[in-house]
UniProtKB/TrEMBL annotation, chain A:
Transmembrane segment boundaries: 12-30
Function: Component of the signal peptidase complex (SPC) which catalyzes the cleavage of N-terminal signal sequences from nascent proteins as they are translocated into the lumen of the endoplasmic reticulum. Dispensable for SPC enzymatic activity.
Source species taxonomy: Eukaryota, Viridiplantae, Chlorophyta, core chlorophytes, Trebouxiophyceae
Domain of life: Eukaryota
UniProt keywords, alphabetically: Endoplasmic reticulum, Membrane, Transmembrane, Transmembrane helix
Family from the record: Belongs to the SPCS1 family.
One Gene Ontology cellular component annotation held by this UniProt entry: signal peptidase complex
Pfam families according to UniProt: SPC12
InterPro entries recorded: Spc1/SPCS1
Record's subcellular location: Endoplasmic reticulum membrane
Name of the protein this chain belongs to: Signal peptidase complex subunit 1
Membrane topology: Multi-pass membrane protein
Gene Ontology biological process terms in this record: protein targeting to ER; signal peptide processing
TrEMBL record, chain B:
Similarity remark: Belongs to the SPCS3 family.
KW ATP-binding (keyword) present: no
Lineage summary: Eukaryota, Viridiplantae, Chlorophyta, core chlorophytes, Trebouxiophyceae
Keyword vocabulary terms for this entry: Endoplasmic reticulum, Membrane, Signal-anchor, Transmembrane, Transmembrane helix
Role summary: Essential component of the signal peptidase complex (SPC) which catalyzes the cleavage of N-terminal signal sequences from nascent proteins as they are translocated into the lumen of the endoplasmic reticulum. Essential for the SPC catalytic activity, possibly by stabilizing and positioning the active center of the complex close to the lumenal surface.
Name of the protein this chain belongs to: Signal peptidase complex subunit 3
GO CC terms in record: signal peptidase complex
Length: 84, 180
């Protein structure tokens, strides 16, 4: 998962759960049933879990490009350390 | 959010926080609910007044006409409804005895219309021999147990009742035991 993907996962999780909470409260209030509220909310949390927890391909669209490794520089530094 | 465990932890934290807010809002909806209940009670008869091992004991029949259906909201788990007799004696300034109680878990059980004959051990028992001619109050009260939030209660008092001036008993009341 790349850095953009991590940010996306966090926001997706937050907004899905907030929406599920609002929808669940409205449903429970309208139907007069606490159990209905819990069922809708439980469903919303399950959706959020499916969407955000596994490392889906859409979290890996913008991989970070690192600098090339500097093997040569490290190799030349080692003998100096050993000589001290 | 860089690994599976971290994302699971974040999801758990957010979902429980939102759940807490939902429960708080649910508890707040109770504050706007003004229940319209009927709590009619009367003493139909006093069936006996006996002295039993140095204590006075009175047998009552009370007539209850209760309608508690309006107490049930989406946040009501159950309702506890009870009748309480209160009297004062020189020995105890406050005597309270619960003479009848019921746990109501469904709105269809919240309609109570019956005559309750209060029998031992619910019969009014005094600490001493002060019940003859004693004035007493009868209170019918309810308490709700919510799913989340605060407990609510209410009630109604029937005052100015008086027990008979001398010992007597009807056929269904056991004879009191006098010690010695």
């Amino acid at each position: 998962m790349d850095f953009k993907g991590q940010k996306l996962a966090e926001q997706l999780c937050l907004y899905i759960i907030l929406a599920a909470g609002a929808l669940a409260f409205a449903t429970g209030w309208y139907q007069g049933s606490f159990a209905a509220m819990m069922k809708v909310y439980g469903g919303g949390v399950a959706v959020a879990m499916l969407a955000c927890v596994p490392d889906w391909p859409y979290f890996n669209k913008q991989p970070q490009s690192w600098l090339p490794s500097q093997k040569e520089a490290l190799a030349s530094a080692r003998p100096m350390q050993a000589a001290r | 959010m860089h690994n599976l465990l971290y994302r699971s932890n974040a999801l758990f934290t957010v979902s429980t926080t939102v759940l807490g807010v939902m429960c708080l809002l649910t508890a707040l909806t109770d504050l706007t609910h003004r229940p319209n209940v009927r709590l009619d009670a009367s003493v139909r008869s006093v069936d006996g007044l006996q002295r039993d091992y140095g204590d006075d004991r009175a047998w009552l029949s009370i007539k209850l006409d209760l309608d508690l259906r309006d107490l049930f909201t989406w946040n009501t788990k159950q309702v506890f409804v009870y009748a309480l007799a209160e009297w004062a004696t020189p020995r105890n300034h406050v005597n309270q005895a619960m003479v009848w109680s019921r746990i109501v878990q469904q709105p269809r059980g919240a309609r109570v219309k019956e005559v309750v004959r209060i029998e031992y051990p619910y019969a009014l028992t005094d600490q001493g021999v002060n019940l003859r001619g004693r004035e007493y109050n009868l209170t019918v009260a309810w308490e709700t147990t919510p799913v989340v939030g605060a407990l609510h209660k209410g009630g109604r008092q029937l005052g100015g009742l008086r027990l008979p001036d001398d010992y007597f008993r009807s056929a269904n009341v056991p004879r009191g035991h006098w010690r010695g």
